[in-house]
Amino acid sequence: MNSTANTFRTCGKTMLMATLLLASAPALAAEYWLRAEALTVTMPDTNVVSMWGFSQCTANHVICAAPTVPGPALNVPAGDASGLTVHLNNTLTKPVSLVINGQTLPEALSPTSAPVWTDGATGPRTNRTQRVRSFTHEAAANGGNADYNWPVIKSGTYLYQSGTHPQVQVQMGLYGALTSDAATNQPYTGSATYDSALTLLFSEIDPALHAAVTGGTYGNVSLGGPTSTLDYNPKYLLINGKGFESGDVPLATLTEGDTVLLRLLNAGLRSRAPMISNGHISVIAEDGNLYPWAGNPRQQYSIFLPAAKTIDALYVAQGVAGQNARIAIYDRRLALTNNAALDGGMMGFMEVNLIPVPVP
Amino acid sequence: MKQTIRKLAQATGVLMALMLGASQPAQAVIDGITGPTFNLKAAPGYISTADGNSQYVWGYADADAATVTMQYPGPTLIVNQGDTVTVNLSNALPVPVSIIFPGQSDVSASTNLGSQAGLVTREASSAGSVSYSFVATEPGTYMYHSATQQALQLEMGLVGALIVRPVGITVLDPLHQAYEHVDTSFDYEYLFLLSEMDPDVHAQVEKHSLPGGILFQLEALGLDRAVLETQLEQAMADVLTQALFLNEPHPELTPLQNSQRILEQTYILDALVHIQLDLAGQLTAVLTQIALLEQQLLAGAVVDMSTYTPTLWFINGRNGPDTLLDANVPWLPNQPYNILPRMHPGEKLLMRVVSAGRDLHPFHTHGNNTWLIARDGRMLESAPGMGPDLATSNYTLQTVPGATYDATFEWTGKGLNWDIYGHAPGDALEPFEYAPDHGKAFPEISAGNPLMLPNVLDLAEGQFYSGSPFLGSQEAPRPGQVKTNAFGGYFHMWHSHNEKELTNDDIFPGGMLTLVIIEPHGVTIPDATY
Lengths: 360, 530
What we know:
Helices cover 11% and strands 34% of the residues of chain A. By secondary structure, chain A is mainly β. Chain A is globular and about 75 Å long. In chain A, 46% of the residues are buried. The relative contact order of chain B is 0.15. Chain B is elongated and about 120 Å long.
């Protein structure tokens, strides 16, 4: 009994919050356990880059999968009114937190928990040396936990990311996509429906910056590290965590006539311009907001995707000149290299197969 | 004073019209080539930049021209809606090249010998060719560019504009209407193809390319292919001459003298053959080096495009102020297009903006806002048939790489709150004059405090100031002032508002910069010729 009591006390606030949440709401349909941890990723030029990523875990973080960049895709089912809860466990040596651009900022139960200042304090700013470290409450370094709850999730496509020291933590890899449809296969109320959905999350890696962060020299001039991200210089340009290499599997295999919902997100720090090599895309929403005149959406072949932007667009798969087609979708800002190697970077293909004509 | 100025303006206007022999203003159309079958050739060449430098570039040339000349940007292709457009591309570059047509559908590509599969579309192999074909189903402003190693080839200059003129019963005049709705009609159209370059990239590619670059590299290695080839030719000739000499009969010599002669001449021949073999060996080494450098270029290993810093910015392939020169000036043979928009008050100017580079350029129009009526070849309309009812008014147009825009610009003087012609209230109205301002003098700063100009010694005038504030009027320039204003028009700067883009390699003014001239009525604005 003693151990149980101790466990209850040390888990303290987290347990209390969880209990309160469980008591106050019906069973949550969208509940995730995520862990922030360090990982290494091998780039197409065999360079190994250290990153931070989220991994998806079973309840109470008992078993965790390997961390990924981008992090696990979070989904709130269509029509689910019970919102989203994320339990975040942090094995990194720095505090982290979770925000979702376009959804309301989650507060812990204590109303003065945000922001968290650089000295770890919360509440009103009492000292000029305090600067914002986190937009919301944190999961402490080296094993800390924090719960984040959004009672109502607005439908659409959103980017979740660390809300702590974002200029470093986001580009280290702490980001992923959240999606929630308004109804089955319909991203927004009043929008068209889709046959399949494809998430294209654009991001970047500056290997020198990553090395400085994980090597402990970031922010420390005496150790020869950069003092800020001012000289940010991304060398690896990614779609869904991967720079393009010939021989990659296509992003999607479609049948002629399929309507694909392209969920475009930019977790990098620079503007991107996704472009399609054939025909037009209907751009229907931006930052989780459906554009007006949904009956006649704007048709574009090049789409502006600045940092942290999300865009929803519909593409009707077509063959090319009566043949099966390989449609390229890529960054027209020409981040098309893997480090110095050309024909890489932010590029991918959708394969479109014609509907076979039955032979009489 | 005002009466005199106005009369002067009228007289000048009429005089100008008489001089130019037109009774009504002509209407400018965009320079380009009409097809709908085009023969283009991808070739290397050089362009002149306004910092006095030149850059090695790759561009498309019109292969049907009398003299085939690579140009930057590539020729503007102008077709009609519904045309079957065929583009035959031949390749004079040391690497494969291709073309894609963003916004078009069902572009078929040939599979002939000399073409090859590419990453995004079929390509012309080096010294090969490929053909593309599609139906231009929708009118509008589009672009075409290489789809091969795009990060490099777009920087090198392989891009051009494509204009599809509308066809249909709602099209009153296809040369003066952009889309199938009368609200997209215009008086003048101008192309604004926006791009940038990083000279370091071009220098690196030049070093690895024939004809100038590889030689440069080899010179650095102490090897000169041309000199070697000349020397080898000479050595081979020498050997031949010597061999012939050796084998000449000399009946005047005794057999012993002859065998001595043969021995000596054989030594000489031997030495000459050694020289020849040596030179041949050097030349082989040089050719191997050239092949290696070409191979590197082919493999795209020549230049790191993950980091680049442009220092040159262009409209229609020229840096400011070369943008203001005429089209087809002989000293810019590879940059035929210019951009100097001109119009009269009350007219409508269409900007066909092609964002051909990889950076965004906030394009800023002094003088008035523009109405953005179409994007990526599609009108901004709430429902099909409504016309551009969703047009937006901007004074800065955000141009996203790869996108194309159509925007209209109008100007009457409305909103200035004074009579731009310097009329007295009883004078007749000019065409399209904003009537509420007719006869108004300059607004007073405050009651009883008329507008006062500074002392003439404290005043400087801009180069484009006519000397008079009134449209169509001129005053003699003050001593020492340069005046470049032929008809007393109003000049407004149109430019990228990313101010560093107004430089040529750090020298201001320059870059992505031009001027629109609001000319007084009666001044003829000439057609482009093509």
